[in-house]
Write a structure and sequence with these properties.
The protein has 711 residues and is mostly helical. Among the domains are: 90 residues; 151 residues, Methane Monooxygenase Hydroxylase, Chain G, domain 1 (Up-down Bundle). Helix content is 74%, strand content 0%. It contains 26 helices and no strands. Helix 5 packs antiparallel against helix 6, helix 11 runs antiparallel to helix 12 and helix 19 packs antiparallel against helix 20. It starts with a helix and ends with a helix. 25% of the residues are buried. Belongs to the SEC10 family. InterPro entries: Sec10-like (IPR009976), Sec10_HB (IPR048627), Sec10_N (IPR048625). Pfam families: Sec10_HB, Sec10_N. Keywords: Coiled coil, Exocytosis, Transport. GO terms for molecular function: small GTPase binding.
């Protein structure tokens, strides 16, 4: 059995257990060795081993049963013991309750006894105290203070307590009979009060916080307690303003006092509030007055900058002081202090702001026009100007002489940035300095000034000048600078719109002024777009000039011999010189339009220009007679025009030039194929007169054969 036990190892694996048993059995090896493999012997060993395992299992089973019985017995004993302990615990708890009731009874008796003793002792103490006060009062009656408490300077605290009580008693005495003693007590009261304040002052200079606390506690019941606080506040500020920044000094002073005032006074929040009030009403108010009064009438710009800076720094200081305990409503307290300093300056702030902004904006514009040596012309307003605008939009009549601007747009990014920067600063000051109820109204006033000088006096003036400077359609080499005006006006308005959203909207978003500002902005946009449209309008504006310029190029560069060369076999060019120059000009203008506008405006203008461009080329081609080689050259020209039309990226324009290209094929197609070409996809829907007009341009049109085939 011992051998069998040795074969068990942890963890138990059956395969390994059989393997170990086989190797320990003689004749159980499978690879030769001293003894050959003997299956019978191995079987016998297995049978014997199984019997041993069965015996071992029975023995272990008996041991397990014995242990289970023992465990059950011990569990019963433990349960019995737990029940006995529970009974003991209940008995102990009952004893504890009885003890607690007894203690409560004794405590009640003790409290009752204490109350009885106090009821007896309190009158006795009062009688003793009254006796002492009568004794001290007699000394004042006799006119000679003999008690040690009055003669010993170290007992000033006790003397102060006594004299304070005597002073209260003296207030009840009739003046006619006790005037002498009352005056003596009052005199001593005053002397002790002065001594205590002097002692407090000396302790503060020595930095003895504990002594200051003792003296302040004694003075708390005296009339001169407020004088003690004043002395403390005054001495706290000695040497506190040594830097150039009074606001930083004030913040550091209040922070330092806040740390120690609780260790000295019983009402620290009141003392700290009084210190802050003293700092604001004396130090800060005098500093603000000094900084503002000297430039109030002489320099509006510096005055506004100083006012904004001082008000901002004062409110920042107030925000820091909000961290301290100043009583229940410290927000209102600090707001009143700030208002007391700045009220005289804030009452008429917006008048100063708007007056300065107007003069500054006018100066910026005038300086710009002076730098251009330009005398600004007056622009009409009202009914006459509106009538001119309508006539200009609907007719082809010139409204006054054209002005030569020499390519100057009279729009300046620098001027715009300066105006917007001035307005931005005005909005910031308005936000900080305006009363919340007046903020939307004040912001609207600033906005109207921006509209007046930026949108009307600068952008609108430049548009009016640009409109007046647009050359007539028959002028040669016209400088179509109005597109530059459009581009710059578009950029400037984006900057204007950004400032509207970033700086004005937050100030008026929750007020009725919002709709008023949006309406004014809408009117300005519509007015500008109307003038931009007028400048680029088909009748009187820039597109008319572009088409006129193309006409001049074609008239100057296109020759009749281009499409009817004398030597049909010696044509070396791919397209005519007129075509090259027109395409170069058109590409340049298309690029300029794309750079000058954005959104749907680009497509609208390019559509109009493309249609006019097609009409011009169509009518131009109708003026010539074409030989076979000339017709081929015309097709090449139209193909080049079509490439140019692709830059427009307008499907309709490209379709028009595709059709024109197909029409030009009629100039070269063999007479026998004319009907087939005319019935093709691109020409089938065209009017027969249009087709006939192009066929008539052929040099061989009058031949009977061609006329017969086309009829």
């Amino acid at each position: 059995m011992a051998t069998t036990a040795e074969l068990f190892e942890e963890p138990f694996v059956a395969d390994e257990y059989i393997e170990r048993l086989v190797w320990r059995t003689p004749g159980g090896g499978s690879r030769g060795g001293p003894e050959a493999f003997d299956p019978k012997r191995l079987l016998e060993e297995f049978v014997n081993h199984i019997q041993e395992l069965q015996i071992m299992d029975e023995r272990i089973q008996r041991k397990v049963e014995k242990l289970e019985q023992q465990c059950q017995k011990e569990a019963k004993e433990f349960a019995k013991k737990v029940q006995e302990l529970q009974k003991s615990n209940q008995v102990a708890f009952q004893h504890f309750q009885e003890l607690d009731e007894h203690i409560s009874y004794v405590a009640t008796k003790v409290c009752h006894l204490g109350d009885q003793l106090e009821g007896v002792n309190t009158p006795r103490q009062r009688a003793v105290e009254a006796q002492k006060l009568m004794k001290y009062f007699n000394e004042f009656l006799d006119g000679e203070l003999k008690s040690d408490v009055f003669t010993n300077s170290e007992k000033i605290k006790e003397a102060a307590d006594i004299i304070q009580k005597l002073h209260l008693i003296a207030q009840e005495l009739p003046f006619d009979r006790q005037s002498k003693v009352k005056s003596k007590i009052a005199s001593k009261y005053h002397d002790l009060e002065c001594q205590l304040i002097q002692e407090f002052t000396s302790a503060q200079r020595r930095g003895e916080i504990s002594r200051m606390r003792e003296v302040a506690a004694v003075l708390l019941h005296f009339k001169g307690y407020s004088h003690c606080v004043d002395v403390y506040i005054k001495q706290c500020q000695e040497g506190a303003y040594l830097r150039n920044d009074i606001f930083e000094d004030a913040g550091i002073l209040c922070q330092r006092v806040n740390k120690q005032v609780g260790d000295i006074f019983s009402n620290p929040e009141t003392v700290l509030a009084k210190l802050i009030q003293n700092v604001f009403e004396i130090k800060l108010q005098s500093f603000v007055k000094e900084q503002l009064e000297e430039c109030r009438k002489s320099d509006a710009e510096q005055y506004l900058k100083n006012l904004y800076d001082l008000y901002t720094r004062t409110t920042n200081l107030s925000s820091k002081l909000m961290e301290f305990n100043l009583g229940t409503d410290k927000q209102t307290f600090l707001s009143k202090l700030i208002k007391s300093i700045f009220i005289s300056y804030l009452e008429n702030y917006i008048e100063v702001e708007t007056g300065y902004l107007k003069s500054r904006s006018a100066m910026i514009l005038q300086r710009y026009y002076d730098s251009k040596n330009h005398q600004k012309r007056s622009i009409g307003t009202g009914g006459i100007q509106d009538l001119k605008e309508r006539i200009r939009q609907r007719t082809n009549l010139p409204l006054g002489p054209s002005i030569d601007t020499h390519g100057e747009t009279f729009l300046s990014q620098e001027v715009v940035v300066n105006l917007l920067q001035e307005t931005k600063q005005a909005f910031e000051r308005c936000h900080r300095l305006s009363d919340p109820s007046d903020l939307p109204r004040n912001a609207f006033r600033i906005f109207t000034i921006l509209v007046e000088f930026l949108c009307i006096e600068h952008i609108d003036y430049a548009l009016e000048t640009g409109l007046a400077g647009i050359p007539s359609s028959d002028s040669r080499n016209a400088n179509l600078y109005f597109l530059d005006v459009v581009q710059q006006a578009n950029t400037i308005f984006h900057l204007f719109d950004k400032q509207f959203n970033d700086h004005l909207m937050p100030l008026i978003s929750s007020s009725p002024k919002l709709s008023e500002c949006l309406q004014k902005k809408k009117e300005i946009i519509e007015q500008m777009e109307m003038k931009l449209d007028t400048g680029i309008d088909r009748q009187t504006g820039t597109l008319n000039c572009m088409i006129g310029q193309m006409k001049h190029i074609l008239a100057a560069e296109q020759k009749k011999t281009d499409f009817k060369p004398e030597d049909e076999n010696n044509v070396l060019i791919q397209y005519t010189n007129a075509c090259v120059k027109v395409c170069a000009y058109v590409r340049k203008q298309v690029e300029k339009i794309k750079n000058s506008m954005d959104g749907k405006n680009v497509d609208t203008v390019l559509m109009e220009l493309g249609v006019r461009f097609h009409r011009l080329i169509y009518e131009h081609l109708q003026q010539y007679s074409y030989s076979c080689m000339g017709g081929m050259l015309a097709i090449c020209d139209v193909a080049e025009y079509r490439k140019c039309a692709k830059d427009f990226k307008i499907p309709m324009v490209l379709h028009l030039f595709d059709t024109l290209h197909a029409l030009c094929n009629l100039l070269v197609v063999a007479p026998d194929n004319l009907k087939q070409v005319c019935s093709g996809e691109q020409l089938a829907n065209l009017d027969k007169n249009i087709l006939h007009s192009f066929v008539q341009l052929r040099a061989d049109y009058r031949s009977a054969r061609l006329a017969r085939h086309f009829s």
